Automatic annotation (TrEMBL), chain A:
Protein source organism: Hansschlegelia beijingensis
Annotated coiled-coil segments of the chain: none
Protein family: Belongs to the ABC transporter superfamily.
Molecular function terms from GO: ABC-type amino acid transporter activity; ATP binding; ATP hydrolysis activity
Annotated protein name in UniProt: Polar amino acid transport system ATP-binding protein
Residue ranges occupied by any ABC transporter domain in the UniProt entry: 20-254
Keywords associated with the record: ATP-binding, Nucleotide-binding, Transport
Top-rank taxon: Bacteria
UniProt-listed CDD domains: ABC_HisP_GlnQ
InterPro entries cross-referenced by the UniProt entry: AAA+_ATPase, ABC_ATPase_HisP-typ, ABC_transporter-like_ATP-bd, ABC_transporter-like_CS, MetN_ABC_transporter-like, P-loop_NTPase
Stored SUPFAM superfamilies: P-loop containing nucleoside triphosphate hydrolases
From TrEMBL, chain B:
Keywords from the named record: Amino-acid transport, Cell membrane, Membrane, Transmembrane, Transmembrane helix, Transport
UniProt-listed NCBIfam families: HEQRo_perm_3TM (TIGR01726)
Membrane-topology annotation of the record: Multi-pass membrane protein
Organism: Hansschlegelia beijingensis
CDD domains: TM_PBP2
Gene3D superfamilies for this protein: MetI-like (1.10.3720.10)
Annotated InterPro entries: AA_ABC_transptr_permease_3TM, ArtM/GltK/GlnP/TcyL/YhdX-like, MetI-like, MetI-like_sf
Residues annotated as transmembrane: 35-58, 70-94, 114-138, 183-202, 214-234
One Gene Ontology cellular component annotation held by this UniProt entry: ATP-binding cassette (ABC) transporter complex
Pfam families per record: BPD_transp_1
Protein name: Polar amino acid transport system permease protein
GO molecular function: transmembrane transporter activity
PROSITE patterns: ABC_TM1
Length: 258, 252
């Protein structure tokens, strides 16, 4: 059911409530139903990993959270704000929710530093000098000092992905979404990106990751969700999830991967 | 200048080759004003046609179907009809339908002059092609790049202005280059509605002086030089916009 237009403003969010609350979400692309009744909560500071076979709806799910993909039915609340509301202020939502993509998607005509600075200046209209200072320290944080003036085409995949992380962080989000961010990387550069994500998680950033890195998921996640064909088949804390998966599909998947 | 005029005059006296626009002050003034008019038509036409191209290409990706139809109809009309016919249509077909205005001497004048009509016709003609050219560039920008912009809070217009257009421009510069060269050359069609551009004044001069071959050669040389300057400028622009590691800007 879609939220009614002009619904009364949601109660202000307090940190004891889930920061993201997903309820009975359904999404179809034509005749293909990608998400069939998905529900879960994410609390502030939590790190959630979504795993599952290709085509199970993981990426679609994560894209629904920042309204890149509109949902057909159900409800997604981000800090008590309904994402599935036609009157939603998308900018408000996207300030809160940062996203990093599989293919980095940097802006190729801008340097690393400009990529990080663009949105705060052009979208949030923040002061240029302040933004530049913040952008430089963010690039330092992702260990890219010295690469400020390089163009994306001159950087390796891992470096580009770290610029993309810094670019999202420059908007000062409350939640970070990572959509298979290491899937396109060489094995040796995967690690440098994972280290960056781990540091973020340790600082208390709320992270929702779609990933195929099982080892990483096990180490970093507070909670793991396994999706298959549009439903959450099984979930739990990593120790429990990996040690004794109950569902047959989960076991089959983990058997292939691990 | 006097030396040059002296040389042209003696050239005429000794060989009969008559470059009257060099030694004769009246012809020189006409010639230069024609040259200036051609440059003016070209520069203004380039600017307006680029604006039409950018706005039209944006409207072409509009979620509203009627807007897209309108743009497509516009492109089809101006691409499928000869520019000379368009200029005549505007000046003789459309202009009489518009109200006339009184000038300071109390004379009733058309709302728009022939120069203004020429600019409108040329801008629309070249703009229609620019829409198609920009569209090809815009289609070359991956959806994922636009998505990244959206995820950073850009509006549709913001994504277009800050991300899509700068990238599309780099992709379509060679095609744009050709179209702008063409625009410069078709400014000569304004001759047909008595705009005193280069061809028009040259024709006036050769009618008065009977020096058709000299004026013809002059005309061709001047166009070669004008287009040369434009192409040189476009190439410099292309180089200035080249990005290391992107497109033809360098090897990855």
């Amino acid at each position: 059911m879609k939220a009614p237009i002009g619904a009364p403003a949601a109660a202000p969010w307090t940190p004891d409530q889930p920061i993201v609350s997903i309820r009975s979400v359904r999404k179809s692309f034509g005749a293909l139903e990608v998400l069939k009744d998905v529900s879960f909560d994410v609390r502030k500071g939590e790190v959630v990993c979504i795993i599952g076979p290709s085509g199970s709806g993981k990426s679609t799910l994560i894209r629904c959270i920042n309204a890149l993909v509109p949902i057909d039915q159900g409800s997604i609340l981000v800090e008590n704000q309904e994402v599935n509301d036609p009157a939603l202020d998308k900018l408000m939502l996207r300030r809160k929710v940062g996203m990093v993509f599989q293919q980095y998607n940097l802006f190729p005509h801008k340097t690393a530093l400009q990529n990080v600075m663009m949105a705060p200046i052009q979208v949030l209209k923040q002061n240029k000098a302040e933004v530049e200072e913040r952008a430089r320290s963010l690039l330092a944080k992702v260990r890219l000092t010295g690469k400020e003036n390089s163009y994306p085409g001159e950087l390796s995949g891992g470096q580009q992905q770290r610029v993309a992380i810094a670019r999202s962080l420059a908007m000062r989000p409350d939640i970070m979404l990572f959509d298979e961010v290491t899937a396109a990387l060489d094995p040796e550069t995967v690690k440098e990106v994972l280290v960056t994500i781990r540091e973020l998680a340790e600082e208390g950033m709320t992270c929702i990751l779609v990933t195929h890195e099982m080892k990483f998921a096990r180490e970093i996640a507070d909670h793991i969700y396994f999706t298959d064909r549009g439903v959450i088949v099984e979930h739990g804390p990593p120790e429990e999830f990996f040690a004794n998966a109950k569902d047959e599909r989960t076991r089959a998947f983990l058997g292939q991967i691990l | 200048m006097d030396l040059l005029a002296e040389w042209a005059r003696s050239l005429y006296e000794t060989t009969g080759i008559n470059l009257s626009y060099i030694y004769d002050p009246w012809d020189r003034a006409r010639f230069l004003s024609g040259l200036w008019m051609t440059i003016y038509l070209s520069v203004v036409g380039v600017i307006f046609s680029l604006i039409i191209g950018a706005v039209g290409a944006w409207a072409q990706s509009s979620p509203l179907a009627p807007v897209r139809w309108l743009v497509n109809a516009f492109v089809t009309f101006f691409r499928n009809t000869p520019p000379l016919v368009q200029i005549l249509f505007f000046y003789f077909g459309l202009s009489p339908l518009l109200p006339r205005v009184e000038d300071p001497d109390g004379m009733m004048q058309p709302l728009l002059s022939s120069v203004q009509w020429a600019i409108i016709a040329l801008s629309l003609f070249a703009g229609a092609f620019n829409i198609e050219i920009f569209r090809s560039g815009i289609e070359a920008v991956p959806n994922s790049t636009k998505e990244a912009g959206e995820a950073l809070g850009y509006t549709r217009l913001g994504v277009y202005r800050h991300i899509v257009l700068p990238l599309a421009l780099r992709v379509c510069l060679p095609a744009l280059n050709n179209n702008l060269v063409n625009l410069l050359k078709v400014t000569s069609l304004a001759y047909a509605i008595a705009v005193p551009e280069l061809l028009y004044v040259c024709k006036q001069i050769w009618t008065d002086r009977q020096n058709v071959p000299e004026m013809m050669i002059t005309l061709l040389v001047v166009y070669v030089l004008l287009v040369g300057v434009l192409v040189w400028g476009m190439h410099r622009w292309e180089r200035a916009l080249a990005i290391p590691g992107y497109g033809q800007g360098g090897v990855r």
